[in-house]
Amino acid sequence: MNSWVGRVGSQIDVEVLEESALAMAQSTIQNAMEEARVTKSDLADRMDCHRSLVTRMLSGSQNLTVKTMSRALAACGYEVRFQHVPIVWYWGAQAVKPPQKALPAYAGSAMPVADASAGIAVPA
Q: In this predicted model, what pLDDT tens digit does every residue of 51-103 receive, in sequence order?
């Protein structure tokens, strides 16, 4: 997978993206368990699997599949939702920034508006 991304000519470290995505998936499951007050044993029972799988899944030693993540969240009363966002790297002198596009107008709302020049969100 790294070879095709490297040919794009970007400074993107795919392994960092993969590990970050895995960490986000694990924390999403952990947060769902806490909100639903589901223990590891409860989750294992609801997923019809061994508790050791749940432990590995939450520790990072288990590479989560979409199916496993979906089953774990469903056991807590949630579903998986995905979205894609541009990759933004601010490490070092060379930064890969997303393409600039017009921001939607939020007339009369308190939704933050992105300040494209500073790369931060500011209150409207």
A: 999 999 999 888 899 999 999 999 999 999 988 888 876 655 455 555 666 55
Residue with tokens 């368990």: 33
Backbone angles phi and psi of 12, in degrees to 5: -90, 130
d(CA 77, CA 87): 30
Per the CB < 8 A criterion, the answer to whether 47 and 15 are in contact is: no
Do residues 87 and 2 touch, judged by C-beta distance below 8 A? Answer: no
Q: Which of 41, 28, 10 is nearest to 69 (CA)?
A: 28
pLDDT per position as a tens digit, 20-43: 889 999 999 999 999 999 999 999
Q: Residue 52 corresponds to which amino acid?
A: S
Q: What is the CATH number of domain 2-75?
A: 1.10.260.40
Contact 80, 66 (CB under 8 A): yes
Indicate the domain borders of the chain: 2-75
